[in-house]
Amino acid sequence: MVGxxxxxxxxxxxxxxxxxxxxxxxxxxxxKILDRASLTITAGAPTLIVxxxxxxxxxxxxxxxGLLSPSAGAVTWGGRDDRAPVRRAIVFQRPVMxxxxxxxNVAYALAHAGVPRHARAARVSELLDRVGLAELxxxxxxxxxxxxxxxxxxARALARDPEILLLDEPTANLDTAATRSVEEIVxxxxxxxxxxxMASHDLGQVRRLAGDVVFMLRGSVREQGGAAEFLDHPSxxxxxxxxxxxxxx
Amino acid sequence: MxxxxxxxxxxxxxxxxxxLSPAFSADRSIVVASTTSTEDSGLFGYxxxxxxxxxxxxxxxxxxxxxxxxxxxxxGDADVVFVHAKAQEEKFLAEGFGVKRFDVMYNDFVLxxxxxxxxxxxxxxxxxxxxxxxxxxAPFISRGDRSGTHTAELALWRQAGIDIEAGKGPWxxxxxxxxxxxxxxxxxLQAYVLSDRxxxxxxxxxxxxxxLVEGDKRLFNQYGVMLVNPEKHPTVKKDDGQAxxxxxxxxxxxAAIAGYKIDGQQLFFPDAHKKGS
Amino acid sequence: MAxxxxxxxxxxxxxxxxxxxxxxxxxxxxxxxxxxSLVGLPLGAMLALLRFPGRGILVVLxxxxxxxxxxxxxxxxxLLLSRSGPLGAFGLLFTPTAMVIAQTIIIIPIIAAPTRxxxxxxxxxxxxxxxxxxxxxxxRMMTLLWDARISLFTAVLAGFxxxxxxxxxxMIVGGNIEGFTRTMTTAVVLxxxxxxxxxxxxxxxxxxxxxxxxxxxxxxxxxxxxxQAG
Lengths: 249, 277, 230
Description:
The structure holds three protein chains of three kinds.
Chain A: E1 2-5, E2 8-11, E3 19-28, E4 31-41, E5 47-50, H1 57-65, E6 72-77, E7 88-91, H2 102-112, H3 117-130, H4 146-158, E8 164-168, H5 176-191, E9 195-199, H6 203-209, E10 212-217, E11 220-226, H7 227-232, H8 237-244
Parallel strand pairs in A: 5-9, 5-10, 7-8, 8-9
Antiparallel strand pairs in A: 1-2, 3-4, 3-6, 10-11
Chain B: H1 2-24, E1 29-35, H2 36-40, H3 43-55, E2 58-64, H4 66-74, E3 80-83, H5 86-94, E4 98-114, H6 126-136, E5 140-142, H7 148-159, H8 164-167, E6 172-174, H9 179-189, E7 192-196, H10 197-202, E8 209-213, E9 220-228, H11 238-249, H12 251-258, E10 261-262, E11 265-266, E12 269-270
Parallel strand pairs in B: 1-2, 1-3, 5-6, 5-7
Antiparallel strand pairs in B: 3-9, 4-7, 4-8, 4-9, 4-12, 10-11
Helix pairs in contact in B: 11-12
Chain C: H1 7-13, H2 16-49, H3 55-65, H4 70-81, H5 96-132, H6 137-147, H7 149-165, H8 168-174, H9 184-193, H10 197-229
Helix pairs in contact in C: 2-5, 2-6, 2-7, 3-5, 4-5, 4-8, 5-6, 5-7, 5-8, 7-10, 9-10
């Protein structure tokens, strides 16, 4: 847990890894969104979750973040099952900007991550620098472009000093240039030791980023393995069809 | 952000406290429950600064109808009552809410109506006039608020042999408001109305109204003042309240009442010492 | 305040009685507004965020109370504060404090009801982000109130308008005492009953002008803050 003592942030030796989903099902209004999905996430290269729309990628990420609780099965973080976000952060497909300046958005995340007031200003500029928004720090967050907002959301997520960073198709609505800058930030985070778990249906992106891949279809995990292995020799028929660009459901 | 908000709220509160303190400070003051006629006629606006200058006691006037003013005092929310309905005042005394009643001054009621005078009452005595209004069913505005003027009006109908409760029709309108409001309504509706002379003289919105009946002995209007009984309500400021009562009936206070004039007309006639009360 | 002078002469001459009336009006209404905001904003936010049995009834009640007749509040406060009432010992009846209490009660629902609506709308939008950032219940309330500030300006302004325009309650609990509890609205009633309609109208115009001026200031602040917040 995060606490402050004598003005210093003290992190108890708590870890959110491994993140384990054990036979997790999720029902919503009679429909089965996830069906006995199992998954173990450990430190290492980025894991990309692929699959067609409606496969359950977003719900899976929300479960991983602890925003949803499963209808059946269990989700644990480092063996614990309390859902309070400890050392994980998420970037949504359409992040919501707080109605304040860009810098204040980051400062807000820092404050709620337990960073003491006197340490925030330096961290804000460092984080904005890291996502390439240093010059826009005084701009109202809602006036930023889509790509800039996505980068600001990344800065907010990184402000939590996460072990696991969950990303839900962060580049789905972005053009090529904006996509590239988001991917660069993600890669640098991964190189810095943060475990990336990212949903995507862009196979090029999977090729560029993935260490391993989780293939989902109709609410269950169909295939899991190294990225090169999955992309070149998928073991299921559905994955082969998906990779070929066929419409799979 | 939160600290900025907190600071803003603090500054706002400090600012308000500063604005409020002079308005809210009250050192020596008494509350007088009185009638709309004394307030609306401007008498208090003239009289009270003289008293305050002499004694340093501020007087806060709540202007209500006589009945309501007496109720306010019954609840203990006033220190002194200054009203004009002798029967009600004596009932108040008998219930033990007042200490002693003093006559202060009188004026008289006048019957006001449109200059066209549809009931033909100009110059008649009050009994004939009321009978004519009833017979013609000419529009008449009643205060209808248990005030001194309303009480006097009801007594006048009785004296004229008219049971107004039974005999009233659409022509008789009880508005349940103060004297000024009744005059405004009469002016708008070309109606007859009973008013105390003081309010009438100082009233601005006369329109087509004029005094039609006056000078009748039955139109005499006596004002009395009482200290609210401190034994009933220990919060009554008895010393300052009594000082106000004493001043009103003192030669100085009586002279001040006589000195209040509008357009050269005297509105109230002091009579505290007429029969050694 | 001389009876035969017009309202404009009084303004130009800086008439002390008129100034005292304006000061009492503003002091009472702004104090009531500050208190009602301190209660109404968190109350609205709590109703928006907390889920408990009977919440629906409370929301309906709060919305209905926006139409609470001031005279009824005035009468209730009168009975409470009267020397014969339960709070009589404080001697607050016929004081500006009594007027502030009555107006505060009147405008709390006017501020709290729209606040609940705005905060609830914002909560739908912010829920995931705030939960993911580990923001606790108090932090959520503060954040949503702050981020909804632009819509809340309108609620607070409506509350001020109601307080400044209200006459029924302040007349009953204040007693319209000259120089002490006489406000713009009770002065208008008094001058009307004196038949001094031009002065009454003039006072009414001054009241409207003051309300417009305050609205203009708030609107300017709001526009500025909108530019800041994007």
